[in-house]
Specification:
two-stranded antiparallel sheet
Length: about 250
């Protein structure tokens, strides 16, 4: 088995390296990841300048670009003659729940793999302590996929509680929850007296009931959310068509 790993925390991040370690027990692993933290990059591509790629080791490559750039380069250039069996993104340093997926570079890397025809999974640890737990969950899920292939062409967004492995309460299939709007931006002054602005903290959970990814994490369960690229609001097509004609 050949596995491509990427992330948005950077090629030297703890999450991707422990993921590579456990996957290397049974698979050939190639890492193509950003040269620095690119959290929040979403699905952005670098269009106005070339990508610079540095080989760190035989199977590790650092890219001056976004997570999507990394997977795009890996599948369309580096591995184009020998595509991987899986694209894994993560392990992210922090949750990707609910609306987070709209901004997440971790989910975007997996989405690019999915878009280019390779089964893809994004893994995120809801915290920054028990990476071993997340790595074991990822390993078990990939081995399960080897025995019984994921029965869908959807990408999977997996969030793991930040607890010891033995404290996990199984895994459940979930839908994305939702947050309230982000809190106000933080305005400050730079040393020259100019205004600068920081993004405010994420909003609190708004839709976090039974069945959501938020609820699963509260129950110490691994959240597995199948996702698709098609953003069309199919149920609104007739309504908008009537509106245009009216």
């Amino acid at each position: 088995m050949k596995i491509l790993l990427s992330n948005d925390d950077g090629v030297y991040a703890s999450g991707i390296n422990i993921l590579a370690e456990v996957m290397s027990d049974f698979a050939d692993v190639v890492i193509v990841a950003p040269d620095r933290n690119r959290s929040g990059a979403s699905n952005s591509l670098t269009l106005e300048q070339p990508l610079r790629v540095t080989g760190i080791a035989d199977n590790i490559f650092s890219v001056q670009g976004t997570p999507t750039d990394c997977v795009h380069f890996a599948l369309n250039e580096l591995m184009k003659g020998d595509l991987p069996d899986l694209v894994l993104s993560g392990i992210n340093h922090g949750a990707n729940l609910g609306d987070d997926v709209l901004y997440s570079g971790t989910v975007a890397a997996a989405m690019e793999g999915h878009f280019l025809g390779v089964q893809s999974i994004a893994f995120s640890l809801v915290g920054e302590k028990y990476f071993e737990t997340a790595a074991m969950v990822a390993k078990n899920m990939v081995l399960h996929h080897c025995r019984l292939s994921i029965p869908t062409n959807r990408l999977l967004n997996v969030n793991i509680p930040d607890v010891p492995f033995e404290d996990l309460n199984g895994a459940v299939v979930t839908r994305l929850g939702a947050r309230h709007h982000a809190e106000n931006m933080v305005k400050q002054k730079d040393p020259r007296g100019h205004d600068i602005y920081w993004l405010g903290p994420p909003g609190k959970e708004q839709d976090s009931g039974i069945g959501t990814d938020f609820y699963a994490i509260e129950q110490n369960s691994v959240s597995v959310t199948p996702m698709q690229v098609d953003l069309t609001a199919h149920e609104s097509l007739d309504t908008i068509n009537s509106w245009l004609k009216g």
